[in-house]
Amino acid sequence: MKDYFNKLLTGMSLGIIVALIPNALVGEILKLIIPYVPFLQHILDISVLAMSLLPVITGVMVGLTFKLTPIQTASVGLAAMVGSGVWTMGTGGAITLQGIGVVINTGLTAGLAVLFVQFIGDRLKDYTILLMPALSLFIPGGIGMITLPYVRTGAGYVGVVIDNVTNLQPIVMGALIAVIFSILILSPLSTIGVATVIMLSGIGAGTANLGVVASGVGMCIASYKANNLGTALAHVMGSPKIQMRNFFMKPRIAFPMIITAAILGALGGMFHITGTPYSAGFGLAGLIGPLNYVNLAAGGWNFHNVMVMLIMFFALPIILNTVLLRLFERKFKMIKAEDYSVNYQ
């Protein structure tokens, strides 16, 4: 069972990274350039499409992690898409893709699909290529459609808790929300989804983003020794969810990042770091967090706002995480570099 969840979480982490990185890298930057170079809109649209394909990509990655056959892997991808909630059937048979779906239900459906295709195995013999995809769509995919509204509601409750926290005074609220989002970004829950469900905005969104920044930068620094530079940067440029499996196995590896998030969140509430529901869950990916802060701050791109942005989103996360990681590794001996190793095999 432990191996099963390890592989499922690893596949989900990789699928989320692959689907979100293209838009995270270019999204906000393209929005600044498109008014002057309109044809770049096509590139932005393609990156948004990739985000909506997150469920099927996640299903395929889960299948590859379990070393399933090509037909089984594709079947898991199809089932995950059906149970994701990313699509709606419109009038005249038109299908609309919007957002990234309910990530936790996508994982649940993919997990059920893996069990299903493994149970079927080679029982279908020569009819495998005909029946496996269809059965996976209708059975685990159908179960995913049934669980979708309940899982979506449960995820919404998480959002309600976060929304209630925003009623506290800014400094305490900022610290709590930053901590919550620094943990959520390492879990199967979608920080973007949670922020969007409750329409988290203003200081709540800004401090939530700082929490994601704290985890992303911290995991990048911590994992550098155990991985290559590209994998380390993926925590910042993509998502720290790449550490989801390691976090679930050893939650203590996130302690330095959580403390960093609390400090950044409190300062974010003090300095009125703001954001939008979309920016709240992305951190530094595509510079979405810092760019949104400067665009929304009173005075826009003035010297004060740019300096606050550089300190809060870049300097402090690096300094705080570096110091705390050193303390937890050398002084408290609670973590080591190998704890952050990411294995793609």
How many structural domains in the coordinates? 2
> Could you name the ranges where pLDDT drops below 50 across 5 or more consecutive residues?
none
User: Helix count?
Assistant: 15
* Widest β-sheet, arrangement of strands: 1-2
What percent of the residues sit in helical stretches (DSSP H or I)?
55-70%
- Mean of residue pLDDT? 90
Query: How widely separated are the two ends?
Result: 19 Å
Strand runs, count: 2
Give me the Rg, rounded: 20 Å
Q: Describe the global form.
A: globular
* Topology pattern, helix = H, strand = E: HHHHEEHHHHHHHHHHH
User: Strand percentage, roughly?
Assistant: under 5%
Coarse structural class = mainly alpha
What does the main sheet amount to?
2 strands, antiparallel
In short:
The chain is mostly helical. Helices cover 69% and strands 2% of the residues.
Report on this structure.
With 345 residues, this protein is mostly helical. It folds into two domains: 1-151, no CATH class; 166-345, no CATH class. Helices cover 69% and strands 2% of the residues. A two-stranded antiparallel sheet has the order 1-2. The protein is globular and about 70 Å long. The chain starts with a helix and ends in a 14-residue tail after the last helix. The mean pLDDT is 90.
